[in-house]
Here is the input.
Amino acid sequence: MARLLEHINVPGIETFDVYRKHGGYKSVEKALKTMTPDEVTEEVKKSGLRGRGGAGFPAGMKWSFLDRKSDKPRYLVCNADESEPGTFKDRYLMEKIPHVLIEGMITSSYALGAKTSYIYVRGEYMYIIRILEKAIQEAHANGFLGKNILGTDYSLELYVQPGGGAYICGEETALLESLEGKRGNPRLKPPFPAVAGLYASPTVVNNVETISAVCSIVNESGDEYAKIGIGKSTGTKLISASGHINKPGVYEIDLGLPVEEFIYSDKYCGGIWKGRKLKAVVAGGSSVPILPADLILKTAKGEPRLMSYESLSDGGFATGTMLGSGGFIVMDETACIVRNLWTFTRFYHHESCGQCSPCREGTGWMEKVLHRIEHGHGHMDDIDLLVDVAKKIEGNTICPLGDAAAWPVASAIRHFREEFEYHVRYPEKVKNPKHFELEPFRSEKVLATV
Amino acid sequence: MAKVTIDGIEVEVADGTTILNAARQIGGEVVPPAMCYYSSLKDTGGKCRVCLVKVTQGSAKDPRPMPKLVASCRTPVMDGMVVQNITSPEVLEARKGVVEFLLINHPLDCPICDQAGECDLQNLAYEHGAGKTRYEEERRTFEKVDIGDKIKLHMTRCILCYRCTFVADQLTNERVHGVLHRGDASEISTYIEKAVENDFSGNMIDVCPVGALTDKTFRFKSRVWFTKPLDAHRNCTKCSGKVVLWTKGDDVLRVSARKDEFGEVKEYICNECRYDHKNMGDWTIEGPRHIDKNSVISQNHYEKIDMQKLKLDIERQIQFQKGKQLPETNQSPA
Amino acid sequence: MSEQKINQVQFSAETMELVQRIIKRYPEGKQKSALLPVLHLAQAEFDGWLSAPVMDYVASILSIKPIEVYEVASFYSMYNLEPVGKCLIEVCQTGPCWLRGSDDIVDHLEKKLNIKVGETTADGMFTLKTVECLGSCGTAPMLQCGSDYYENLTTEKVDTLIEKLRGSDQRSTYMKSNMQEI
Here is the structure.
């Protein structure tokens, strides 16, 4: 089974010729010449591939919801608006092997019957846009895009669209609004994009990694793909590893890898930097619940925690978290949970579209309270206030940004309440922004003995 | 047709009706509040979240409950749907939260706000708000601006319902104002000082649920509860000419469109009727405007009191307090 | 630039041709979809920010109302609604960058450029801003200037970078050089 990053170190793999020499664009040939669109969709269903953007919704099922009876054109839109803090895998993939995405877009567009497809890339990734434009140009020149691809009667145009700087456009309906030249305000659902998406036409929106994975699934069959991984977490996953580790970067893992191995093996993160101890991990991008060292390494039942959708969420939010986008942020014993949370909440406050009241008002409120606590101006009541405000945002907003803003707050207080109390109790000690670097916060509960 | 049960009361409504509108057909206490939805403005709703309700049964066919509270103004009913509004503590708790969110950055300037007495946020806060604020941070403020020569925009009071932008889109021929910036920095603005000049622009004042858009010809003239509202009409070539005159003695202080029991304008009026006919003689007076008895405006007793009805109302209240079944008179005035 | 009137704002023939090509990417009548890319082009061509006349000009090209452009331009964080220096330095400060020392980078830049975050140097050369996650967490701390990412920063690297950037104009690097390759 071919991995997404299998040829990452081949010189020139970013060019069409080298990529093609290493088996590139085979899935397009296979799909267009030997398979019907429905057969391609069937393979994706069999593969068990789950959306790699964060929600983990089965991709094949999403494809099957597409309204194929509509007489309107159908669209495939690639979500390359990667903006979840801690996540940079799509950027890495597009930069190093842009053609795997282009290939996946062609094969997937064929399966969905799309004649025009768009890749919506966050505007800040301007240099990535250049790389993709070049790759598209090469694919065109070699007959893989444009009219009558490979002599078949399938034609496809593929365009790159830049965003303008807005995390919310990673939410699929906000992305579609943005692609229509509007503010990135998420739409109220129903209708879902599968029925009325881009220009009110049936649309599928998939993440970069999801679409790229389609190449291997078509080449080697959905069943083969499903053999990798564990249970309903099939295939490989790109993990963006950042924070206090020796080797930050993007790693492709087989789902099911033990978390402990991922953190400490030299093949992956290479352990905690500066010989320090592990304190906490945010395992799936800033939105998912933070877990203290003991709970990220082992579940509450004492089983080893694995890098899979199911294992990471074992224990629910009380003792578990989520795989999310695979943004794996590691914190050592000197990290201040409150300050880290404040930066996350500031992020959500900055990125709220402002359309619905709980998110617009609640994110700003939480940020201000956290700012006070972190800077030594908090009261004990503030901690419960934060929990309550988070609770009143969660589930009550138009789109998941509200939940994304609430979960980090709720989980940080759930697992690190002592540290918030310390900030209130010793305002003088936390006035220096590097307070825990000078003197790590000690709690037997949170420090692993690994 | 679809049968839907809201707080234990069954109603049959046309397919595609939203939960909110089904509840409005029942009337009374089960109607969720609405700060952004406006039935005559297409695509409004879903934003303020005060109308959230709990769907405990999706439909007869698929009885699963909906996982989250839903915006009743934008969720269509299904046959066999079961909904909880005031009978769900979860809904009331969420609504309390939303009201608090709407208030944290809202100025407490009711004593000098022209909207006081007819403000949807004031009513909402009265019913669902807490007695005291938990918000100790600095409140957001904006400069006041003129949108044209007749409308004052007091952005600090705005709750971003977007209704006025829909009015501009749907009732006027060119929208020149909109929502700028994002998040809690969002503001209704024209960006460059450009006048809103259009025959129907004044309707933005009537649809505004708070005192963010006020009529400059009425500003600070009188508290609304010191005025007598009269239904009146005139022959107008641009609109229906059916209005409410807000009067004091023989003076017409303000002209507005007529609102129904849910606070919505059904027939929009033109700017000529609104601003240019402030003489009683310009109008055919129909009689006192009926205002809900709970409104501070009716405390002015401008309308002859129906003693029989008052007696029934008091009786009803007493029974309600005792937790008894609400009697038949519990129907909102049509 | 702030004195400019709409009739004085004009894309170069080359950019105009590019704009026309972008519009063709979308179905007939959906030219509003070109708004985000065209605003990037406008910002690159007109000194790195979008004045009201520039936004009105973009509205006229795309046959949409000026308010539709203001609404969009003010929503997205990459569009500058006020003039910026020739080099706009944007330092990421979200969690993963903060964990690896972005605060030190910001402090260092403030001292080095003798300005505070949000300010522009007196000579109009540098504007310093802090921004939220730029998707470069594995190479933190980092900053963006023009279309380039500068990663794994240390204070020494920042010093070298500032000397390299001094005298250059990065405002036009967004979009334009890229799109001309199409």
Notes: Residues 16-227 of chain A form a domain with the Rossmann fold fold (CATH 3.40.50.11540). Residues 446-450 of chain A have pLDDT under 50 and may be disordered.
